[in-house]
Amino acid sequence: MVARVSTVAFQGIEGVPVDVQVMVAPGKVGMQIVGLPDKAVAESRERVQAALHASGLSLPAKKVTVNLAPADLPKEGSHFDLPIALGLMAALGAIPGDALDGYVVIGELNLDGTIAAVSGALPAAIGANGLGKGLICPSDSGAEAAWAGSEIDILAPRSLIALANHFRGTQVLSRPEPAVRASPANMPDLADIKGQESAKRALEVAAAGNHNLLMVGPPGSGKSMLAARLPSILPPLSPPELLEVSMIHSIAGQLAGGKLSDRRPFRTPHHSATMAAMIGGGLRAKPGEASLAHNGVLFLDEFPEFTPQVLDALRQPLETAECIIARANHRVAYPAAIQLVAAMNPCRCGMAGEPGHSCARGPRCVSDYQGRISGPLMDRIDIRIDVPSVTAADLIRPVPAEPSAVVARRVARAREIQMDRFIAFGMPRILSNARCSTSMIEKIAEPDAGGLQLLRDAAEKLKFSARGYHRVLKVARTLADLDEKATVGRIHLAEAISYRIAGERLTAAA
Ligand SMILES: Nc1ncnc2c1ncn2[C@@H]1O[C@H](COP(=O)(O)OP(=O)(O)O)[C@@H](O)[C@H]1O
Ligand SMILES: [Mg+2]
Questions:
Q1: Which residues surround ligand 2, an ion (CB under 5 A)?
Q2: How many domains does the chain have?
Q3: Which structural domain, as residue segments, surrounds residue 437?
């Protein structure tokens, strides 16, 4: 008799249905798993046998064949243990044959018969729901799976015995509850930053329109400090965004305790990050930092210290909002709609441009260092600002600074205006100016006469690329939204262009 159990193989954040077929038949005693298993799946055999033995079920002296269908789809990970064990239990009559019909099953087994947490419970639950089925998953993954919807039947047993008891009706499992991660109480606050008013303004504009931002300044001027305060002024994730973000974190196994939070991700990879760490890849094509920062911020501190290849690999996700990992036999795409925030010193010694400083290496100190950032990557950064050293006056007798909560309210208002506009244009999936298409931005950010003249002059003198031109328009639209103005005026364009010019100076130096 062949017992069948449904499970999934993950491709990106999607769970592709996989059918586990188990047959116990006379023949050479042993257990074999076929159907493109990777190393972890092949090792499943040992765990399943030990766990069944520990649960008081020994295998008959027969030939056990496990087939994972479709056979040409690569199966990766340890979550096939539980479906294989349950298939075997059904084939041996330890659980009713039809008990598993309405479920998708994932889980890893320990040798003692308990079920260990696996990554990907949330996408598996969403996939199961799509098939009209429930989900059986490890108890530690239950809280995460429960987020997929209150109507989904979820069983999250601790052990094989607990599940068998549930099916026998002797000890019924209760449905797990979705858990929320409380936002940290003492997030860094903008009020801690003395002076740096123009940098704070740029941070607010970047937050309001979801624009990429580059801060250039000498060491100790507060660049890292400013970036760390960006999460405190960003609006919370909307429910669909939250689900998308959590699916990626679930696949990466980074949802601690299965708890979800509506805070936007803020990822700060070290500059030694490899291509696989940044874009994704490695053994099981896991999502990289760019995807883990989806719908949030990717902060690259000490920007030019990253490997140029890794930086340039970010150009594609910055444009298309997804990371594509090509493998020998398949291709995996993870969403990566990121806001890039970068900070750097102007040169290796860090003091270029400081009054009274002259570097022994001359202008090459600046050009060599900044040349590590390629032109095309720089072109994708909408707002570039200089962050000079804090003045002594600001440090010693600072003017009381605005707390994050006040700035966050203005940012939220500006985002609301943007979303309402995109809904009115029939594009509810666009949530910020930075994400809107070029044809759209020309429509919604039409400048008044004074603005048009300024834009024409600037585009001519500064030789904007077409992308640069559209990005200036997007920032100007955000500035007008912060002002709650319907039309983009000269003043908005002037500020947007000034953010671009700081960068043109940088590129010129390179
Ligand atoms: N504007 C500022 N207001 C208050 N403290 C500051 C400011 N700028 C720098 N500091 C102090 O200097 C330290 C280093 O700042 P940091 O943000 O790491 O500088 P950078 O990244 O520009 O090199 C901070 O931990 C803080 O103590
Ligand atoms: Mg720093």
A1: 224
A2: 3
A3: 408-500
